[in-house]
Amino acid sequence: MKKFILILGLSIYGLTFSAQGLNLPFTTDGNLNFDKIENKSWSFPDSPNTFKIEKENNDYYIFHYGYDDEQEKETFEKHKLTVYKNVYFKDNSYAYAYDIKFKTVVILDSKDLRIIFPADPVD
Length: 123
Prior knowledge:
β4 and β5 form a beta hairpin. By secondary structure, this protein is α+β, with helices and mostly antiparallel strands. The chain contains 1 helix and 10 strands; from the N terminus they run αββββββββββ. The protein has one domain. Strands 1-9-8-7-6-5-4-3-2-10 form a 10-stranded antiparallel beta sheet, covered by helices on one side. The longest helix is centred in the N-terminal third of the chain and has 21 residues, at 2-22. The chain has one helix spanning 2-22, and strands spanning 24-25, 41-43, 50-56, 59-68, 73-84, 88-90, 94-99, 104-109, 114-118, 120-121. It starts with a helix and ends with a strand.
């Protein structure tokens, strides 16, 4: 579990470090577009970790999936997301949304809503 947290932390550090490089505007049609996000897994850039956004009752959650080498098993963390302006999801660190220009989920800087990285769909 410690190794998973370390990998997740390094992934987040990598996103933070690289955020200044991409810094693209987020393009939205004013809708959440959850139908294009739900029941799909997405990968973080340059990382084996994946995430999935799901709705449970009336709340949205993000599931971070990874692999713990020490325990030789998959691990995950679950965090509640808040929906803002019916356009994007936000947790403690980042915002997540569907970008109509990239036609994929994007990871946004939660302060200025600029794209840090587009996420890749997991087959």
